[in-house]
Amino acid sequence: MAELGDGDQAAVSEPLDLVRLSINEVVFVKLRGDRELNGRLHAYDSHCNLVLGEVEETIYIVDDDDDEDEEVKTVKKQSEMLFVRGDSVVLISPQAPS
Prior knowledge:
Blueprint: H1 15-20, E1 26-31, E2 35-44, E3 50-63, E4 71-84, E5 89-94
Antiparallel strand pairs: 1-2, 1-5, 2-3, 3-4
């Protein structure tokens, strides 16, 4: 992600400015329905519609049997390109460099 130095304080004046600074960077997106995405942000709009590339989607499935404890299963999917509708987005976070 672009580093925020002393001269860049005005670069983040609105919430979506942080998303703008994450263009072409890997972001973490939490969605409704127990889904998470990690992918490269290619585009976004004011409704938080997103276009992500090189996406790994993680789906959490809660298997709750009446006689046993709840069991959480994870399913991972890979996609080359994905359009995400903004009304399903809960959180967008820049990924920390590894």
